[in-house]
Amino acid sequence: MPNKSRYLHFYYDQVKEISLAYHALSQEKVVLNKEIAVILDKAPIHEVVDEEFCHPLLLEKGMLITSPDEDEKYRKVRINELGAGNADPSILYIFPSMSCNLSCAYCSVEDGGKKPGTRVTNPDLATNAIKWFSNYRAGKPGIPKLILYGGEPTLSTKTISASLQAWNDHVRSENSSARVSLITNGTLLDDNLIQLLKIYRPSISISMDGPKLLHDKQRPFSRGGGSYDKAYKSFRRLQDEDLKPSISCTLYKSNLARFDEMMDWICEDVKPLSLGFNVVHCRTNLDLGPSYYEECAEFIMKAFSTLRQHGIYEDRAMRRVHAFASSTFHLIDCAGLGRQVALDADGQLGICHVATENGETPLGSFTDIKNSSNNLSSREELKEWAEYTPILDDGCQNCPAIAICGGGCKYNVHLNSTKRNWKNRDLDFCKSNVKWMEWLASDLLSNLE
């Protein structure tokens, strides 16, 4: 007799009297009459279902199963298909400078911006790391990526220049699809650096948190005064040079409650081709309020509806939208879960780029790793991070958002867990993804003819 899969969930359109039956692991979708859906929805997991309500498509799509064992068997199939738990870094973070000239209110780096210019990565170290990473990636599938990060990377243009040159010579020469990104606050871009960027054409993201008044409250210079005018001028200059800059926008106290003002600024003023909203995390001493993450999720959902009308791509929303619409399993929400390594200014290798900035470099010396015959992907430290994906967590299997979630930030949980238990989940992140599922299903049902 058929029984109900633990992965079967229902969403409703009360106006149209229809429901979406959704398999959270396969991401299969079936539209049903609301009355049948309500009956099946109330049925306990793995309980026998009256054949009167066994819609053939529910059987075909594995939403109704013949034995409870089928759920776990299918989970193992998906784990294998997705390579869940495999550590295979394809992204290299380099910090040209680990210092910063700003003192952002929400900075996730301890002492961020208080010591500008004091922690710079030697250009030779960056070059050697890129050569090593190129050799490591040789013959592997996928697209390698270099991210120039900070601190504020443009405090060391020599290291940026050396990194771009080395990436071009040793990685792009072997794989033309290889990518490189520069994430900067935009306050130090001068003619020489812009000419360099025109030669190598990396993806460039400027950190801007809204129009001048809102931005300057959150992103002042470390020595006082707002940073908006210089960041905005650089953004415009990059647009004029056809370098297609994107915006990295953190939602925090000054801008989170100013939705209309933010949308006007994005859509009518700066008009980026793309942007990404950031949610504050990896801080233990900020009072974000009890509903901060819920407010961020609602802001981004609402913003997505506006931005797509203006042809602006928003990264955080599109991770979920793409996963849901194309039935593509979103395995990890951050490459820190086994898919990246980060080199600090002292030549130490970490896993999470924020943890690396805060001095947590569990992989140890880059020189030792470079000279070791052991495979980087087999390192237990990396494997532990890779195993944080929800499909491997028994506690996540009843969640409807398991395929769009990606697990969130492991380091944030580590910092904010009183037990320091890395298997814990960020419940605020979990709640926001459940809301995303409700929104995505509602959007799908409302657009059905």
Question: Can you walk me through this structure?
Answer:
By secondary structure, the chain is an alpha/beta fold. 41% of the residues lie in helices and 14% in strands. It has helices spanning 34-42, 56-60, 69-82, 123-137, 157-172, 191-200, 212-218, 228-240, 253-256, 259-270, 292-309, 315-325, 353-357, 366-371, 380-386, 402-405, 410-416, 427-446, and strands at residues 3-4, 8-13, 18-23, 29-33, 64-65, 91-94, 145-148, 179-184, 203-207, 246-251, 274-279, 313-314, 340-343, 348-350, 364-365. The strands form three sheets. Strands 12-11-10-9-8-7-6-13-14-15 form a ten-stranded mixed sheet. A three-stranded antiparallel sheet has the order 2-3-4. A two-stranded antiparallel sheet has the order 1-5. The model has no long low-confidence stretch (mean pLDDT 93).
Q: How many strand elements?
A: 15
Global geometry: globular
Strand order of the largest sheet: 12-11-10-9-8-7-6-13-14-15
Strand content: 5-15%
Radius of gyration equals 23 Å
Largest sheet: 10 strands, mixed
Helix content: 40-55%
Report the average pLDDT across residues.
93
Given helix and strand content, the structural type is alpha/beta
Runs in which pLDDT lies below 50 for 5 or more consecutive residues are: none
Count of DSSP helices? 18
Span between N and C termini? 34 Å
